[in-house]
Design brief:
The complex is a heterodimer of chains A (about 190) and B (about 230). Chain A is α/β, with parallel strands linked by helices. Helix content of chain A is about 20%, strand content about 30%. Classes of the chains: A alpha/beta (about 190), B alpha/beta (about 230). Chains A and B meet through helix 2, strand 5 and strand 6 of A and helix 1, helix 4 and strand 5 of B.
Chain lengths: ~190, ~230
């Protein structure tokens, strides 16, 4: 089972269907079961069963998650693969000592792969949908695997299966989520 | 949170409105009437009926007109949203965008410029589940425009009920149309919905059709008790 974490400002918000729903459909299509939890209510029990976790994105104006880093401390010890999408990548970076800075991108952008990564496939560049107000300065030691002209687009932990993408793979880049699901099955 | 719903009169904007009402306060509808049938941004065939729909739903409406010239129509949408902020104090905008990155990104940018939230509750929704949900929830949408093979003139004015949905599914298989009409294959007008206190009855309409392209222009319509 893959746990989808909703990072929106409140439980069952109007943003849920926009940012969790599309990811859930890709996970289902990839043949994986999924469960769902809001970031404010993650308990130890929620983390026992999943063999992968996806931290979903939020609305452009919704950055409350970034003020609640203490709600994400469990990411420090997690051993299963984690994929952070946009807000999810920002949460992943903050917990591990990275920083955020204002940098807005909206719409399709060219993403260039700077270091081969199984989640990104073998393309050197691709177009992806962006919707963010902040960019990440990755945590010390993390590897940058893709960039756009404006900011870091994909990162990963040097040793553990923790990855983040700033673009929204649920829009026209389903393969990224499908590859993550395959990784979780391994 | 007070929201304004971008409303073209079609099924997607009204269903998005219905979803928004379940979570937040819908303070008004926002409608942009395009004089250009080929508008990039705005659904056109029967936008003149949005005021009647707004009355049926008991929601205030902010309307602006646009020539529908690419680029300039975004300025008109900004003007409409700005009026909704002024008149109704909206804090966010809701759209019925399904897949169009072109439309969604442009509305997102306008919202960012005004410091507004932007919600797209139907974004990348499952088309099958969405269309079933639409019919099951009691939305009565009629087809007011067809723009692709193999739609015949009989589809103009036809309600999207279970039988019509089954016909559309057949076209998805045979002609690769999108079930929701997101590819521009057809346009709809909502004549009744669970959030309407009254239903719209069309008294006079006119069909124009040639080569798999046609419109149902509603000339006269009234509200009636449900």
């Amino acid at each position: 089972m893959i746990l989808l974490v909703d990072l929106s400002w409140k439980v069952r918000s109007l943003s849920r269907d926009e940012f969790v729903g599309p990811v859930a459909r890709i996970v289902s299509r990839a043949g994986q079961e999924w469960g769902e939890a809001h970031f404010s209510g993650i308990r130890e029990a929620d983390l026992r069963d999943p063999h992968g976790i996806i931290l979903c994105g939020t609305a452009l104006k919704d950055n409350l998650f970034a003020e609640k880093v203490q709600e994400f401390l469990w990411l420090k010890d997690i051993r299963v693969p984690v994929l952070g999408i946009c807000a999810g990548m920002q949460a992943l970076c903050l917990v591990h000592g990275g920083a955020l800075r204002q940098e807005c991108e909206i719409g399709m952008t060219t993403v260039r792969v700077t270091r081969p990564d199984p989640l990104l496939g073998d393309r050197q560049a691709f177009t992806a949908y962006e919707l963010h107000s902040f960019a990440c300065d990755p945590p010390p030691g993390w590897e940058v695997t893709a960039v756009s002209d404006r900011c870091v687009q994909a990162v990963r932990h040097p040793d553990r299966p923790l990855s983040g993408v700033m673009f929204h793979p649920e829009v026209r880049n389903d393969l990224v989520v499908e590859r993550f699901c395959a990784l979780c099955r391994e | 949170m007070k929201l304004g719903v971008l409303c073209s009169g079609g099924k997607d904007s009204w269903f998005a409105c219905h979803l928004a009402m379940q979570k937040e306060e819908v303070a008004c509808l926002i409608s942009v009437r395009s004089r250009n049938e080929e508008s990039y941004m705005f659904h056109t065939p029967n936008t003149h009926l949005v005021p009647l729909q707004a009355e049926a739903a008991g929601l205030p409406l902010v309307t602006v007109e646009t020539e529908g010239i690419e680029g300039a129509e975004l300025g008109d949408l900004s003007r409409a949203i700005s009026l909704a902020v002024e008149q109704f104090g909206i804090e966010g905008v809701v759209t019925g965008a399904l897949l169009s990155v072109y439309q969604a990104a442009r509305v997102q940018r306008i919202c960012r410029d005004f410091g507004l939230w932007c919600f797209n509750p139907l974004w990348y929704t499952d088309p099958e589940a969405y269309m079933d949900q639409l019919v099951a929830a009691g939305f009565r949408s009629i087809i007011t425009g067809v723009f692709a093979e193999p739609f015949s003139p009989d589809w103009l004015g036809r309600e999207i009920d279970r039988k019509a949905l089954s016909g559309l599914r057949q076209y998805v298989r045979s002609h690769r149309i999108t079930l929701t009409g997101e590819g521009g294959e057809y346009e709809t007008l909502v004549v009744d919905a669970p959030l309407f206190a009254k239903k719209i009855v069309i008294l006079e309409s006119e069909k124009e059709y040639a080569n798999f392209r046609g419109f149902l222009q509603v000339r006269r319509a009234v509200l009636e008790a449900k």
